[in-house]
C-alpha cells in the first residue's frame, strides 16, 4: 500500500538522521613519552592504538625486533611483559636497541604479582619504561596489597611515569568482591551475581585510581581499564565507568580468541563503545595462529577506528565480494595486491606524502556497480565480469581517465595509483 500524502510530507520534512560517532567523552589527557616522542591519550587526542609483544622479554634482541615490527605496523606504544628479574634486567637493553634502530615507540611494562619488587630493585628498568601497567588484583591481599600498590605508585612518582590501573575479570580483588556480594545480599532487591561483579570491576578501578592520587600520582598520569572476555559485559562495564570518572579509558577484550572469533568479538564490543564516544586507547588482543604475525592485531585495531571514521591509517580499498558475474579471480587478486601494496608503502608515504592515508581506491569486478563505485573513489578500476568486453576503465577523481586492456592490467593500474599519490600528496 502506498503511503498517504501526509505521511510522505512528514518524512520529507524531517531532519536527516545523523551519521557518525557521538562526541567523545571528556577526559583528562595523559602523555606517554620517550625521548622526543610524546603520545597523548584522552583529552582531545585521537584514539590511540597499542599492542603487546609475546616474546620472552629476557631475550632482548627478539623482543626489540618484535617491538619494531609492531611499531612499523602502526602501534603507537608497545607493552612488554616484565615478570622476572631476568626480564627487568633486559628492559634497558631493549630500549637501547630500539633507540639505535630509530624506533621511538614508548615501552609499557606489564606487571603482575612482583612488580613492586622489580621496579624497586631495577631502577634502570623503571626509567627505561615509559608507563607501568598495574593490576591491583594481583598484588596480594589486605595490608600487603596496599603496601605493594603504594610501592609501585611511589616508583612511578619518582620517575615521572604514567600508570594504567588495569583490573581484570579473572583476577579481581576477592576481598572487594566478597564485601560487595555481602552488601548486595542486604538489598531489598538483590542484583544478579554478574551485575555485582561488573560493579566491582568499576569500583576497584576508580578506588585504586583515587588512592594513587592520594599517594601523590597526578591525576593526569592515570589511565584505567576493566578487562573482561565477553562483549556484552565489556559494553556494560565501560558505559558504567565512563559515567563515574574522567580518567582516560583503555578498551579491549581480554582473551578475545583466535582468528575471526577474536576479530569479530573485539570489533562488536569496541565498535559500539567507540561509536558512543567511549574509549581513548585500544588493543585488539588476538591469539595469533602458530607462527602467525603478531602485527595483525595492530592492523585490526586500525581498521576498527578507520571503519568508524575516527582515524585514517592507510588507504581504503573498496572491492566487491564477487558473484556469478565475476567468475574470474583477476579482481580478487588485484584487490589483494593493491591493499597489501598500499599498506606496505605507508611507513614511507606517511612522511613523504602526508594525507595519503585518506586515499580511497576501488577495485570492482563487473559492470553492475563497478563504474559507480569507481567514480566515487579517488581512483578506481572496473574490471570485466563474465561475458563483458575485456577492457577495464579507470576513473580518477570521478572522471573516466583511461581504459586498460591486455595481460598487464594489474601492473598498469598500480603504476596509476603510484602516480596519483605522488601528484596529489607530494609536499610542495
From TrEMBL:
Residues 1-11 have a biased composition (Polar residues). GO terms for molecular function: 4 iron, 4 sulfur cluster binding; 4-hydroxy-3-methylbut-2-en-1-yl diphosphate synthase activity (ferredoxin); 4-hydroxy-3-methylbut-2-enyl-diphosphate synthase activity (flavodoxin); iron ion binding. Its cofactor is [4Fe-4S] cluster. [4Fe-4S] cluster binds at residues 320, 323, 366, 373. Keywords: 4Fe-4S, Iron, Iron-sulfur, Isoprene biosynthesis, Metal-binding, Oxidoreductase. It catalyses: (2E)-4-hydroxy-3-methylbut-2-enyl diphosphate + oxidized [flavodoxin] + H2O + 2 H(+) = 2-C-methyl-D-erythritol 2,4-cyclic diphosphate + reduced [flavodoxin]. Pathway: Isoprenoid biosynthesis; isopentenyl diphosphate biosynthesis via DXP pathway; isopentenyl diphosphate from 1-deoxy-D-xylulose 5-phosphate: step 5/6. Transmembrane segments: none annotated. Residues 37-301 form the IspG TIM-barrel domain. Binds 1 [4Fe-4S] cluster. Pfam families: GcpE, GcpE_C. Coiled coil: none annotated. Its EC number is 1.17.7.3. Signal peptide: none annotated. The keyword Thylakoid does not apply. One of its GO terms (biological process) is terpenoid biosynthetic process. InterPro entries: Dihydropteroate_synth-like_sf, IspG_bac, IspG_bac-typ, IspG_C, IspG_TIM, NO2/SO3_Rdtase_4Fe4S_sf. Residues 1-26 are annotated as: Disordered. Residues 317-418 form the IspG C-terminal domain. Converts 2C-methyl-D-erythritol 2,4-cyclodiphosphate (ME-2,4cPP) into 1-hydroxy-2-methyl-2-(E)-butenyl 4-diphosphate. Belongs to the IspG family. PANTHER family: 4-HYDROXY-3-METHYLBUT-2-EN-1-YL DIPHOSPHATE SYNTHASE, 4-HYDROXY-3-METHYLBUT-2-EN-1-YL DIPHOSPHATE SYNTHASE (FERREDOXIN), CHLOROPLASTIC. This is 4-hydroxy-3-methylbut-2-en-1-yl diphosphate synthase (flavodoxin). It comes from Pigmentiphaga kullae. The gene is ispG.
